[in-house]
Amino acid sequence: MRITILRGALFAFLLLSSAAILYTTAQNIRMAESLADQALESTALSLSTSAEMELRAGHGQAGDHMQQLFSDRVVAYALIAHEDGKILFHTNPYLVGSSLGGEGLTEWLKSGKASGGRIILKTGLPAFQFNYPLHRPNGEAELLRLVLHTTPADRIISRSQRMWWTVGLVLGILWTLGILFERMFIRQFRLREELDKKERMALIGQMTAVLAHEIRNALGGIKGYAQWIGEKMDPADPKKTGVGFVLKGTDRIESLVNDLLLFSRDETYAVISLEPDPLIREALEQEASFWEGKVDLSVEPGTAFRGDRGKMTRALSNGIQNALQSMGKDGTLRLAVCSEGRWVEIRIEDSGPGIPKEEFPLLFVPFHTTKTSGTGLGLAYSKKIIEGMGGTITLFNRPEGAGACLSIRLPRAERN
Predict the structure, then answer these.
(1) 2-161 adopts what CATH topology?
(2) Which H/E stretch holds residue 130?
């Protein structure tokens, strides 16, 4: 739960940070574009004002000074047109006297408002067109049209748009660091939980070992005395049946105590290279000698693995025993061994009813059992020793049909 909350908080922070960075970058780029257009408009307005002052100084005549004024390389071209559309001045002298088209021009001149915007020239180049109402000394209004090259402004916009690459790199680094932090923190958190769990289990193991020894000592006296009484009693004595129940009870408690001692002790492992076929056959001999069902064994060649022989036999016997108990007197027990890269997998499959969904979280929990005569330590002990040998153990329902499957994976033995 705490891991989920941490992940949610971290990813929420990363999302909010990324959104803030993207929004700020977009706003900065829009501002750069707006400032570039404002710079073009300011340049056009400055040139238009200078042209108007030049006309006033020249008594309404656009002379050489006007040509010089618009000779700036930022100016694509400039013209002055009468309200009927006739061009009175043009930076290209050959266009003087031609018609611009006066439709709507009179109304625009009456408004007296300058306006500008981006256009595309016939050459395909971008430009900024600025229309300015030019007032001559005699009071007549004419159109001054300035068309400016936008290359300097576009260069500024292009540079500002390169910020997206920087932002992309920053976001990549931010998310990479965030994910690395999440992995490291979660790993440390899980290691801490695992260490705490091991410490608790070690403490429980110590307490269990002490209690089991004390119980076994007391149990030995009870069992020995019950056996002595049973031997002294006449076989026809009805009380002998009660003594038999006592002995069965002591045997049951003794078995439980032995399981507790086995589960609680610190294990040592004699890990060697093992061939799976003889181990499985030995476990089958112990558990399935008198079983009436069908046994199907398949062992892939070259599947030697590393493990402790005695502990592997116990784990296999426990898995086979559980499978047989789930099927009853009849069914099909399938055992298969195959290699998967650096792992060897041993699968024990049965044709029983399978595992209820509500039991999955408790499968390897010590002392949890659904059997009336079980201790709940078989699977827990198998998990302990398999993981102690560097392997993994899982139990799940078969996806292709009825029954369950116990999968044991251990490191593959190196080939000589």
Answers:
(1) Beta-Lactamase (3.30.450)
(2) strand 126-135
